[in-house]
Amino acid sequence: MSDLTTDLVEPDVAGEAPLAGGPPAGTAPPLGRARLLVRPTVIYLASRALTVAAMAGAAPIANLSLTGAFDRWDTKWFMRAAATGWPSRIVTEHGHVTATTIAFLPVYPLAFRWFSALTGCPLLLSAAIVSGVTGLTATLAVWALVRRFAGPPAAERAVLLFAFFPGTFVFSLGYSEGIAITCVALGLLALLRRRWVVAGLLGAVATATIPVALAFAVSCLWAAVVAIRRDREWRALAAPVLAPVGFVAYQLWLWAHTGNPSAWRLTERGGWKSYVSPAYPFEVVWKFVTHPISSTATTNLLVVCMAFSVVCAVIAIRQRQPGPVLVYGLGAAVVALVAAPVGLRPRFILDAFPLVIALAVQLKGRSLRTVLWISALLLVVITVYSVDTFRVFP
Predict the structure, then answer these.
(1) Are 333 and 344 in contact (CB under 8 A)?
(2) What are 318-355's pLDDT values in tens digits?
(3) Is 15 or 186 the better-scoring residue by pLDDT?
């Protein structure tokens, strides 16, 4: 694990080449290495100031306090999980399965519950602190990952676009993305360094945080197959074996806790009408094409996000991102794409952050500044929208 900590301030050790190309970086004095973290930290804090200002401005319009603006959407469900836990049976109303905390994986609510117990902070404040701090660690982890395979200038561009990407409004709410992206980005870094057990353990935490992180298990499998074929490094199998353990363990616990092996799936389906459908993206596009004027806000959002993701995926493939990074980005996008009625919203494109990285690495100069301004504007719009309306869930 110390190797990954070193990577946060010294992404490449001289003489050790990454799996897929990238400029080696030499060593630097400890103080100089620590200073490298200042710029991405400041960028992240600037993006949080922007989202909090947007929330503060939107809250009075919706007759909410700033606390009320924070305690919305999935935040409410994570708060329930932290406060009351998970029900011991599938809850039904009029014979139909209804929404409960069973649909919410445990790492994030347990994290801020424990933080609240240790510090005495109220649960809502603890949720905000954990989400905000892990948003910062996610930003630093993405910075270190890109610096590892694409070099320092690309890493700085990646941090700018990542921090101000519209989906990062969740770092200013009570959401689990900060923990998951931190673990996945560091896990990808571990795969590039061939630290198989570390990668697997980070994956296990991530898959017990958000379901989309299961794409990281596929990335681990890809990296393990490559390592075995090239170097007969059978230890690499530790990564794909360990990575899905978090999600699998939660399903097994739910089975023992509720007596139903399908508790999570049934709750997702009954409470949120959520299910896996490879046809779903085609249905969304068809609705937009056949009714472009009268299509719903949800349809418009999903079509725009799908188009953006396709462009970024093409860029990532053409850039030849390191295999584990590319596989995760594409896999996470596909997982969200076929999840009806969720689809590829900004939050789930954020989970598939290698797509955002690809765009940041590609753009420079005026093009980067233009996209960054547009992204920051959309970040404000989506933040305000998440506070002021329930028409489209974020």
Answers:
(1) yes
(2) 999 999 999 999 999 999 999 998 899 999 999 999 99
(3) 186
Closest CA to 183 of 115, 231, 245: 245
Q: What are phi and psi of 352, to 5 degrees?
A: -90, 50
SS3 state at 340: strand
Q: Is 215 helix (H, G, I), strand (E, B) or coil?
A: helix
User: Two tokens at 203?
Assistant: 């994956």
Is the CB of residue 343 less than 8 Å from the CB of residue 302? Answer: yes
DSSP state of 12: S
Are the beta carbons of 5 and 30 closer than 8 angstroms? no
CB 220 within 8 A of CB 200: yes
Segments of the chain assigned E as strands: 92-93, 96-97, 275-276, 339-340
- Is the pLDDT at 13 greater than 50, yes or no? no
- Encode pLDDT of 196-219 as tens digits: 999 999 999 999 999 999 999 999
Selection from 194, 247, 193 nearest residue 216 by Cα: 247
Point out which residues pair with 139 in neighbouring strands: none
Helical H segments across 232-322, by residue range: 238-242, 245-258, 263-272, 280-290, 297-319
CA-CA distance, 256 to 331, in Å (whole number)?
A: 30
Angle at the Cα of 346 from the Cα atoms of 345 and 348, rounded to 5 degrees: 70
Least confident of 17-31, 205-219, 359-373: 17-31
Tracing tokens 């395979």 back to the chain, one arrives at 149
Buried/exposed 297-323: b ≥16 CB within 10 Å, e otherwise = ebbebbbebbebbeebbebbeebebbb
Show the CA angle centred on residue 160, arms to residues 158 and 164, nearest 5°.
115
Alpha-carbon gap, residue 129 to 213, rounded angstroms: 22
The pLDDT value given to residue 19: 36
> What pLDDT was estimated at residue 33?
65
Task: State how far the Cα of 22 lies from the Cα of 107, in Å rounded to an integer.
Answer: 34
